[in-house]
Amino acid sequence: MTKGHLLYRMLRYVTLTAAILLLLIICARVLGHFESQYSSDSQHIDASYFEKSMDHCTWEVDSYQGFQLSRYQKNEINKAYVSALDFLYTRKARTLGLESEHVQDDLLERCPFLENESVDIDGVHLSHNLSLLFISDDKNLISLSDKGALLKTRTSYKAGGISFHDVSRDYEVVMRLTDGRWKMTNIRISKERSPIKSKSSTAFDSDLGPGINYYPAENPWRLFWAEYDSSTTVSDMRLIKELGYKHIRFFIPFEETGGASPTDIFLENLQHFVSTARAEGIHLVPTLFDFPVGFSLDKYRDYAQHLHVICTALGGFDNIVLWDLKNEPDIDFNYHKKEDVLAFLQFAALQLRDCLPDAALTISWAHPAEAHQLQEYVDVISYHHYDPNLSVQEGIELVKSSVKGEKPLYVSEFGKSSFTGLAFWRDGIAQQKQHNTSFITVMEAENIHYALWCLYDYEVAPTNVFGIKPWIRFPQKYFGLVDTSGTLK
Amino acid sequence: MRFIIIYSLTFCLLLLSCKSEERKQPIDYPTIDIFLESKRVVAGHELLFRFRSQAYIEGQVVFEGVWGQLVQDKILQKGDNDIIISPAINTKTGLASIYFTSDTFRTERVYVEILPGPSASAIPIYTGPKSIWIDGIQRSMIAAIPIDTFGNALAEQTKVRFNSRTINSKTLRAFEKSKHMIAPYTFYSDKKANDYLVGVSGDGFQAMEQTVSSVPFLPRTLLLDLVQHIPYADDRQFTSLRTRPIRDRAGNVLPDGTLIEFYIHSDKGTISKYKSFTIDGVASVSIKNPSYETVWEIKASLAASYFSNTIKLFYGKAIKDLRYSFDSSSKILTVGPLISYLGQLVSNETQVYCNGSFGTLQEGTEKGKAIFELKDYFRDGEGINIKIMVGDHEKELRLK
Known about the structure:
The structure holds 2 protein chains of 2 kinds.
Chain A: H1 3-35, E1 57-61, E2 63-64, E3 67-68, H2 71-89, H3 91-95, H4 105-110, E4 119-135, E5 141-157, E6 162-178, E7 181-193, E8 210-213, H5 223-226, H6 230-242, E9 247-253, H7 264-279, E10 283-290, H8 300-314, E11 323-327, H9 329-332, H10 338-355, E12 361-365, E13 380-385, H11 392-402, E14 409-414, H12 428-445, E15 449-452, H13 463-466, H14 470-476
Parallel strand pairs in A: 1-4, 8-9, 8-15, 9-10, 11-12, 12-13, 13-14, 14-15
Antiparallel strand pairs in A: 2-3, 4-5, 5-6, 6-7
Helix pairs in contact in A: 6-7, 8-10
Chain B: H1 2-24, E1 32-36, E2 40-42, E3 47-53, E4 57-65, E5 68-76, E6 79-85, E7 94-101, E8 110-115, E9 125-128, E10 131-133, E11 139-144, E12 159-165, E13 172-177, E14 183-188, E15 194-202, E16 205-206, E17 210-215, E18 224-228, E19 238-243, E20 259-266, E21 269-277, E22 284-288, E23 294-302, E24 306-307, E25 311-315, E26 319-321, E27 324-327, E28 332-335, E29 339-340, E30 351-356, E31 359-364, E32 370-373, E33 384-390, E34 393-399
Parallel strand pairs in B: 2-8, 10-17
Antiparallel strand pairs in B: 1-3, 3-6, 4-5, 4-7, 7-8, 9-11, 11-14, 12-13, 12-15, 15-16, 15-17, 18-19, 19-22, 20-21, 20-23, 23-24, 23-25, 26-29, 27-28, 28-32, 30-31, 30-33, 33-34
């Protein structure tokens, strides 16, 4: 074989290999697009658009001259009132030609409405405080007031900008019961003002101690709460304590736990988890809204209700020392408008402060470079550090330089996979140990809170969390301190 | 000289271009002050806002009310810019606001209160209940919503006049003021059956005439009579009762269709309720006899408030005796002949039950007899215990 032939054959093999690799990447991208957990939430309105939970409606006065509205009547009025108000305000619904069964036709006809393509203004009422002012003898006509209804608007400009604004309004309304349905016949705004601002921060002075991120070995990620096993929790808590960890960061997904109405079984399991940790003297950092959620305004009411239920369930536990509002929201920047993600986080932070005024908050950013975002809303600056090109010290400096003030830092995830792939000659476990040890040494020297990722290796890294790319998925299985056979690495 | 002219022209051109540049170049955060002619404007009138801008800027003017927003693209020149909201748009009362926005900034809102326009000639009214009983304490309500020509509720404390009368009475006049957008008028029923006519009017508006019927209600007496009674526990028979014509205190017969309920009580409490409607003041009911020996007490009721006299009814055993015969060779049990209360055979298909360890067998009678073939249930040399039941008769037997 001549040298020319050899070169030709080598070139052919290299080209072929490159072509196959390219094809694989394209296939992975295409499939990844469909399977990625981070899909952009759609803006379409379906039939359920106006059938949302009604927990954001409270009644200050529900009686009139000795007559008391029943729970059923209040619920019916709530639904009709909220639906009618949304319908009047929401451009989307009206431009799509949707009809409302809760707005009297002539009221709708009387409302001016013109299209404009430069700006799209969307709005949602996040709270209502209703009072019954009048009810007719036959109980078919009512007059209501709604004081301090909180309206959040999102203005999207054709030029690209997005802005959010909150106003607090007082409404006066007349509604009539026709054919079994309450219909709004008259409405007016009587007052409007800026909403009262919640408490913005809480001093965080707890000593978290060494921490670890937790999923059980058998049912990690989305299966954690669906297949919750109390005996596993008990034994895992003991193991975590024996390993010397003082706090656990764990995850509460939105959809998987029941969304706006978390299920009773989930709440029972959640309380078991927290009380078991308390019995072992372990502090907790619950991470809310885990896995991607949409960020459109019409979902805010559900999020508020979810948050309220979780806070009510866990509010009495003193071993919850820090609330993490969302895991890696900066990854959502790739799939949603950054402004929408940040607005959601601000909203969640204010809601949490309303529910638990003394709770300490954080947001776990995936990248140190984003950790300065919304720093005025959190009490602890939190980020993840997996970047091999950035030393732990560099990461800390990067965050410190971008954050104003002296808020404590918390590296809520760091770690290294012991998976070595085709490099079988490498000792992945030794590298993992060395990486974690050196990381912890620096953070303890810098007095920075931290939580290692994670307790266990897992048999499976689910595609609905990590996508289908094997070079991303496989290493995810081997970040644990304990391998799949249950042995400490 | 030529040099001076050229220099002057160039200088002028430079000045112009600078001015033009200044005009076209938008700046990010200009100061824009918004002025109103008045903080209160009547619906249906033109709204004039003056936007005083420090610089040229492109953006949108947003006029917002309870109904949503009206967005207009607008270029603000440096200085005063008038924005007019046309009368056709300014039609909804209450607080409205206006602001200027672009993708980089937004001004504060400026509020204007839109007041109701001239009152509409016809206003909506809601009446209920549409009929009331003539007991003098029942009441009905007419709720008027005084509105302007755009459908907005008129100002609070708008005076509404309510004129009401029956055919034979004088016109009663009352005034009510609107509160929370509604002016309610309440009136009480009369002592006699009548129709109330109610007219609603005010300063420049009227409403459709409303009629409220005042119907008889309180009965003077409620008496129940027994029409037919076969005093045996035979559920093929019926007991019939009816009320005497029911009249109210004014002597009016209750209107047709008035609901009367008949309650049946036994030693176990209220065991059943039948419903009937009056025709010419009389309500009738036919009740199936019980299938077991018992005593019933029946009374009629109007609206669970007025009760009639109680009628006590005895239902004796329908079958005088429970006879049977058993053929031990063929293992056939014959129940009957069953004799009824007048000495006659019970009617065909009267159900007889035979209960044993094998379960329950059921046969209908034919010429007073029911026949059970039991040979499949006997074992060698052993007897069986059974219980036969018909109506409220039972008998326990040991058969061999």
